Amino acid sequence: MTTTTITTPLPTDTERELERLPLRWARALDTADASILETLLTEDIVVDMTPATTKIGLEFPVLQGRETVIPTMIGAVGPLDTMHAVSNVTALGLGDGYLVEAYALAQHYLPGEGPDVTATRHALMGNTWTFHVRATPDGPRVARFTMDCRWMEGDPTVLLAAIS
Which of 53, 73, 90, 63 lies closest to 144 in space, CA to CA? Predict the structure, then answer.
């Protein structure tokens, strides 16, 4: 997707639909609901979390294709006790689609430890999420997702618990 041509303003209905997209992404991860991601992603989706994972000392590959992205994302985050809070969502028109950006606060505990007040091993991250969105006949669909980490607290290896 090209990000050089920005058009404004977006129609109100389009802007509202796009602003809900990061909330639905977070909901899919928090509830391990692959069906939500199925409706959000293009077939050729690219997920790049390397800007975030390299900053916190982890290796995570760039994922390509809906058939790879969905089971990998749900498999990595779904089993964890996780909650995302999304804010500061903005949506802009691009020459070939849309750019949606958001802040995401992500709290991760090992499976079953989230409600345990004595459990202290966690990963709390302040991230920026960037979605390149393509207009399709079925509505806006995410063609590329990039995550960057602004700050991290805790143990980043908690994020590997479900895939180790």
Answer: 63
